[in-house]
Specification:
One of its GO terms (cellular component) is cell envelope. The protein is of the alpha+beta class. 28% of the residues lie in helices and 19% in strands. Helix 2 packs antiparallel against helix 3.
């Protein structure tokens, strides 16, 4: 499987949020109406103007407080469940770029059902503009197509964000895990064989974010029957059969 991939090394992330701001700037997204939730994470979750979000998690390890940072975004799945569900209702509304593997929503996705699309994503990433299309990270396809790296990678000052040809990124990620293993036995890559955005963590993934991985079992869990029952047919089944 060729194309491009990200490697996000959480051990090098300082939560400066430069990637989050660079994403907003490049996509010309507005600021988000937010509130204080007692965490430095801001805004609290993805929204129609936030495609990249540095999540903060405070945990206790052996009696000591630790902070885990997780620069969350669309994983650009190799076989994207959201594409199946959206195109079950609106054909030809999602582009999976052949050269990079980027999964990009078009304006046509405005007609797709909100709940079905949200439920289809193993990482709960897609959001919808008010009466507009679904939105999320585009892999900065406009930059990458012109020989540039994504804005979030360009701005990262620590080397936490990396991007390049998939084979090279996978090799880089695996090498980094091997180097960290002696100090961090739980060092691991998350869903590396299923997605193009590969996170490295050094503890239980759920300590970083409840949806850091699609599943604790191998492979992405795809909602059964979504692609064939999406849209009106599935709503009829819900009404008649309660399923």
């Amino acid at each position: 499987m060729a194309g491009k991939s990200f490697f996000i090394d959480t051990t090098r992330c300082t939560a400066c949020r430069g990637c989050q701001i660079a994403c907003k700037n490049w996509n010309r997204n507005e600021g988000s109406l937010t509130k204080n939730t007692g965490s430095h994470q801001n805004p609290p979750d993805f929204d129609a103007n936030t495609f990249k979000l540095v999540r903060f998690s405070e945990v206790e390890n052996e009696g000591k407080v630790a902070w885990y940072f997780f620069a969350d975004q669309c994983r650009h799945c190799l076989v994207p469940p959201c594409k199946d569900v959206i195109e079950g209702t609106v054909p030809d509304s999602v582009i999976q770029d052949e050269a990079t593997g980027a999964v990009v929503y078009t304006e046509k996705t405005a007609e797709a059902p909100l709940d079905d699309v949200r439920e289809s994503c193993p990482y709960d990433v897609p959001r919808k503009k008010d009466k507009g299309p679904f939105v999320k990270c585009t892999m900065c396809i406009d930059r990458v197509s012109n020989g540039l790296v994504p804005a979030c990678v360009k701005i990262c000052p620590t080397g936490a964000m990396n991007f390049g040809d998939r084979d090279e990124i996978l090799a880089m990620a695996k090498d980094r895990v091997e180097k960290l293993k002696p100090r961090y036995p739980k060092a691991q890559l998350l869903d590396a064989n299923e997605v193009r955005v590969i996170f490295l963590v050094v503890d239980d993934p759920r300590k970083y974010h409840k949806k850091a991985v699609a599943s604790l079992s191998p492979g992405i869990q795809r909602p059964a029957g979504k692609s064939t029952l999406a849209g009106p047919a599935r709503r009829v089944l819900k009404t008649v059969l309660g399923v």
